[in-house]
Design a protein that fits this description.
heterodimer; A: mainly alpha; 0% strand; elongated; B: 422 residues; alpha/beta; Spore Coat Polysaccharide Biosynthesis Protein SpsA, Chain A; nine-stranded mixed beta sheet; 18 helices
C-alpha cells in the first residue's frame, strides 16, 4: 500500500518534471519572440513616424477637419494614431505567434480566429475613419454654401449631410466585419428611405409654393430675372 | 518657348502667317457671338486711328463656343466712322482665332494669348473682354500706349465707377496689395489689361499654370509677378465700364473665392518679397486716378445685414478656428447690434482680413472653405461701408479709402506676426 502511494507520487513528480521540462523551453521561446516582437514593433513605429514627418498627412488631416474630430474625441494626431496602431498590431502578431508555440490547442484556435478577424477590423476602422472625414468635409461645405446663399436653417442641411454619410459609413464598417449583415442593411434602408420620404412629403405638401418656385427657377426662363434681383440686392464686388 | 505650350498646329500655322508684330490684342471668349464682332471692330478702329504704321494682330482664344463666336470674329465688318474717312492703316490687320480644349478657363485663355505674343514677338499687348459693352477705341490705345511708348510692363485699367461698385476691390484687394506688395493697383482683378512682350515671356516660363488661383484669376498673378520681379507697372484710365447682360450680377461668393484666393496664394508664393517691403510706392497713372459717381443705387441693405448676422451665428465653429479669440468675440458682439449701430470698422476689418490670410497660410482648414467663410464678414463690411457713405461725396469716399489703406499699412506687423507664428 505504502509502496503504491510512493510510486504514484513518484509518477506524478516525474510527470510534473516532464511537463515543466517540455513547457519551460516553450515559455522561454514565447517570451523571446515577444521580446523580439517588441523591438521590431518599436523599430517600425520609429520608421513610420520618420516617414510621416516627411509627408503632408497631418496638414491634410487639419485641412479636412479630421484633426478636429480626433481632438474632440481626445485622441492624438493622425500620424501618432497610425504609428501607435502599427506598434500594437506588430507586437500583437508576434505575441500570437509566441502563444501558438505553447502548444495549447484551444487557446491556439481562439487566437487564430482573432488573428483572422484583425484585417477585417482594420478595414472597418479605416472605412469608419474615411466616413468621418467625408462627413465632416461635406457637412462643412453644405453649411458654407447654405449660409452664403441665405438658405433658411443651414445647420439642418449641414447636420443632415453629416448624419446620412455617418450612417452609411457605420453600416459599411459593420458589414465589413460581418456583424449582423442583414440587420444593418435593413436598418440603413429604413432610415435612409424614411428620411427621403420625410423630405419628399415635407417638400411636396408643406412647401408646395417653394417647390413650384424652385422648379420655375430651374426649368423656367427666369435666370435673368434672378440675376437682376441679385443685382438689386447686393452691390457688384468687382 | 511658345512652341512647347498649348498652341495647336492650326493656331501655330495662323501665327506663322502673321509673322512678327508690334502690337497684339487678345480677346478671350465663350459663346459671345452677339458682342464679339463689335469688340473686334473697335479694336481694329483703334489700330487704324492710333497705330497706323505699326504691325498689329487680333487673337481670339475661344473656350469652346457653340454659337459661332470664332466665325463672328473672322467675319465681322468694320464700319469706318464718317469723320475718319481717308484714314487707313498702312499695314494689314491680322485676325486669328483658335479654340482650346477643356471648356472656358481664364488661365488657359491668357496663357494662349501670352504664347501667341511670345511667338510673334509682340512688343505690347492687351487683353479685352467681349463682356464689356462700352469698349471704345481709347481703351485699346490707353492700354497699349504705356507698354509700347513708355516701356511699362503691366498696365492696369482704371474705370469710372459708382461709389458702391467694386467694393471688394476698394475694401480688400487694393488696400491689401498696397500694404503688402508696396504698390496699390486699384483694379487688381480686371478683364482688361495691358502688358509688355517681356512680361509675357517671363510669365509663360513660370510653372504655375496648373495652380487653381492662376487658372481662375491669371491677371492678379501677372501683376503681382511683375511687381515682385521689379518690372514697371502703371494704371491707365479707361472711363466708365458697362457690363453686357450676360456678365452682370457677379456672384459675391465666386468673386471672393477667385480674387481673394488668388491674392492670398500670391502672398504665400511671394512671401520673400512682401515680407521685406517697408514703404509703399506710388504707381504712375495715366489719366484720372479715380472717378466716382453718386447716382441712385438699388441695394437691399437690410438683406446684406441679415446675411452678415446669420452668417456669424451659423459659422461660429468655423470662424472660431480661423480668427483669434479677441477678434471673434468682437465680431460676435457687432453682429448682435441692431442695424443702426452695427459697424465693422477699419481696424477690426483689417484684423479679420490679416487673420484669414494667416489661416490660409497655415492651412487651418480646406482653403476653399476658408475663403467661403470670409463672405459673411465681407457682407458685414460692405453693409457698414454703404451705411456710412449713403450721402458721402466721391471725395469723402476716397478719403475713407485712403484711411483704410493706411490702417492696412499700420497693421502689417500684425500680419507678419500671425504669418510667422507656428
Amino acid at each position: 500500500m505504502k509502496q503504491l502511494i510512493v510510486q504514484g507520487l513518484q509518477q506524478a513528480y516525474q510527470n510534473l518534471v516532464h511537463m515543466i521540462s517540455v513547457f519551460l523551453p516553450r515559455l522561454v521561446a514565447m517570451l523571446l519572440i515577444m521580446l523580439v516582437g517588441l523591438f521590431v514593433a518599436l523599430l517600425l513605429k520609429y520608421l513610420l513616424r520618420l516617414i510621416l514627418r516627411f509627408t503632408q498627412l497631418n496638414r491634410l488631416s487639419e485641412q479636412s477637419g479630421a484633426s478636429q474630430v480626433l481632438r474632440n474625441a481626445a485622441l492624438p494626431t493622425i500620424s501618432e494614431l497610425l504609428t501607435r496602431s502599427l506598434f500594437w498590431v506588430t507586437w500583437l502578431a508576434f505575441t500570437l505567434v509566441g502563444i501558438s508555440i505553447l502548444g495549447i490547442p484551444e487557446l491556439h484556435e481562439q487566437l487564430s480566429r482573432l488573428f483572422q478577424l484583425l484585417p477585417e477590423v482594420f478595414v472597418a476602422i479605416l472605412i469608419l475613419f474615411v466616413g468621418v472625414l467625408a462627413a465632416n468635409f461635406l457637412s462643412r461645405a453644405a453649411l458654407l454654401a447654405a449660409v452664403n446663399a441665405g438658405v433658411r436653417s443651414p445647420r439642418v442641411w449641414s447636420g443632415s449631410t453629416r448624419f446620412v454619410i455617418l450612417i452609411l459609413a457605420i453600416s459599411m464598417a459593420l458589414e465589413q466585419i460581418g456583424l449582423a449583415n442583414q440587420t444593418v442593411t435593413a436598418a440603413f434602408s429604413i432610415v435612409f428611405g424614411a428620411l427621403m420620404l420625410a423630405v419628399a412629403i415635407a417638400f411636396g405638401l408643406g412647401g408646395r409654393d417653394l417647390a413650384r418656385q424652385t422648379l420655375e427657377r430651374y426649368l423656367g426662363d427666369n435666370k435673368r430675372r434672378d440675376r437682376e434681383k441679385e443685382k438689386e440686392e447686393e452691390p457688384s464686388p468687382l | 518657348m511658345a512652341e512647347e505650350t498649348l498652341l495647336s498646329d492650326d493656331f501655330l500655322r495662323q501665327l506663322m502667317g502673321v509673322g512678327e508684330v508690334d502690337l497684339l490684342v487678345g480677346v478671350p471668349s465663350h459663346n459671345d457671338a452677339q458682342t464679339i464682332g463689335a469688340t473686334v471692330a473697335v479694336i481694329e478702329e483703334s489700330f487704324r486711328q492710333s497705330f497706323t504704321r505699326d504691325r498689329v494682330a487680333i487673337v481670339n482664344v475661344d473656350g469652346g463656343s457653340r454659337d459661332g463666336t470664332s466665325e463672328a470674329v473672322l467675319k465681322s465688318v468694320v464700319e469706318t466712322h464718317p469723320s475718319l474717312r481717308g484714314l487707313t492703316s498702312l499695314r494689314t490687320i491680322h485676325r486669328v482665332s483658335t479654340r482650346y480644349q477643356g471648356g472656358p478657363s481664364p488661365g488657359i485663355a491668357v496663357k494662349s494669348i501670352l504664347a501667341a505674343a511670345d511667338l510673334v514677338r509682340a512688343k505690347a499687348c492687351a487683353v479685352i473682354s467681349p463682356h464689356s459693352a462700352n469698349v471704345d477705341t481709347n481703351w485699346i490705345k490707353n492700354l497699349l500706349q504705356p507698354s509700347y511708348r513708355d516701356e511699362f510692363d503691366f498696365v492696369a485699367p482704371l474705370y469710372s465707377r459708382h461709389k458702391f461698385e467694386g467694393l471688394l476691390a476698394r475694401n480688400l484687394l487694393y488696400p491689401m496689395t498696397r500694404a503688402t506688395f508696396g504698390r496699390g493697383i486699384r483694379e487688381l482683378h480686371s478683364t482688361e489689361f495691358g502688358f509688355s512682350g517681356k512680361l509675357a515671356t517671363q510669365c509663360l516660363g513660370q510653372d504655375v499654370w496648373r495652380e487653381e488661383p492662376v487658372r481662375k484669376s491669371p491677371e492678379i498673378w501677372m501683376v503681382i509677378s511683375a511687381m515682385t520681379s521689379g518690372l514697371k507697372c502703371c494704371q491707365s484710365f479707361l472711363g466708365p465700364k458697362v457690363q453686357t447682360a450676360a456678365a452682370s450680377g457677379t456672384d459675391i461668393v465666386a468673386a471672393v473665392r477667385e480674387t481673394v484666393g488668388a491674392l492670398f496664394w500670391c502672398l504665400e508664393s511671394q512671401q520673400e518679397f512682401w515680407t521685406g517691403v517697408n514703404a509703399p510706392e506710388a504707381i504712375p497713372t495715366f489719366g484720372s486716378d479715380h472717378e466716382l459717381t453718386t447716382g441712385a443705387s438699388r441695394i437691399n441693405r437690410k438683406r446684406i445685414f441679415e446675411l452678415f448676422q446669420k452668417g456669424v451665428k451659423d459659422l461660429e465653429p468655423i470662424l472660431k478656428t480661423i480668427l483669434s479669440d479677441e477678434t471673434h468675440t468682437e465680431i460676435e458682439r457687432i453682429a448682435l447690434l441692431d442695424e443702426k449701430n452695427c459697424r465693422l470698422g477699419n481696424e477690426l476689418w483689417v484684423k479679420v482680413v490679416f487673420e484669414f490670410a494667416a489661416a490660409y497660410h497655415h492651412n487651418v482648414m480646406n482653403r476653399d472653405h476658408l475663403l467661403q467663410a470670409l463672405v459673411p464678414l465681407y457682407r458685414g463690411r460692405i453693409y457698414s461701408f454703404i451705411a456710412e457713405h449713403q450721402t458721402s461725396t466721391p471725395d469723402e469716399v476716397e478719403a475713407d479709402t485712403e484711411k483704410l489703406c493706411l490702417e492696412f499699412i499700420r497693421q502689417k506687423p500684425y500680419l507678419l506676426e500671425k504669418w510667422n507664428a507656428k
